[in-house]
User: Fold this.
Amino acid sequence: MSIRVPATSANLGPGFDVLGLALSLYAEIGVVDTDPMPSDASIADEGHPAHIAFARAGGVGRIWVRNSIPMGRGLGFSGAVRVGGIIAAEVQQVGSSWSRESSRALEIGTELEGHADNVAPSLHGGVVITSENMVVQVPVALSPTFVMWIPEFTTSTNESRGKIGPTIALNDAVFNIAHSAMFVTALATGNVGLLKEATRDRIHQDIRFASSPACKEALTAGLNAGAWCGWLSGSGPTVAIMCAADQVSDISKALPEGGRTEILHIDFDGAVVL
Assistant:
């Protein structure tokens, strides 16, 4: 058996450390001695986040990783492979009786990551709200397509988070709370017209855009081309542009050079034991 885990996009504009969604881009993890290793996989060294998570969850031996999630691009690579490593350890211990409900992947993954907004959607799939080890699935009454603008440079999550500071103004907090609620409502009711306003942010994106102006350019270009909404994915530098399927071509053409595009959808399955 092996474990397939999806990439994620976190924050989703105003939902800093709270909102996240799973995407149709994957990593696969298996145990070297028991799970046949694909030719395009590699054995994780002891410093790999998947191996660290595997060992933390009581796994024995070495694991292999086959990965399609870009690293350091704000697509939840470390959170996804940590979830995969934890589940690989649990499956090693309990076999086919493994269940998501009894898994400690959220607990251990959040402990290792420091926040749950990547770990939770990678485990559960779909769009989620996270708070203090709670995960709430958001109903999605839309069928969005995502044009992901993925630049050539990378971002350090720790460095990026360090720029935000330990406190925020009360009016900015209220603004983001209101807009997070708007976003959840727009998804649950299919209100496309609300999405652009709902994904505005006053806490983190402008701070991060200051050091990566090309990302702000990509977001603006996508919105001007008719996208429903968009945001800086996680700590960046990837920009997520949410749109209808028939808008993909026009939006892709409008995005700036210096990045490639990946067309993705919401993954509703989360982590899967194959």
The longest helix spans residues 170-189.
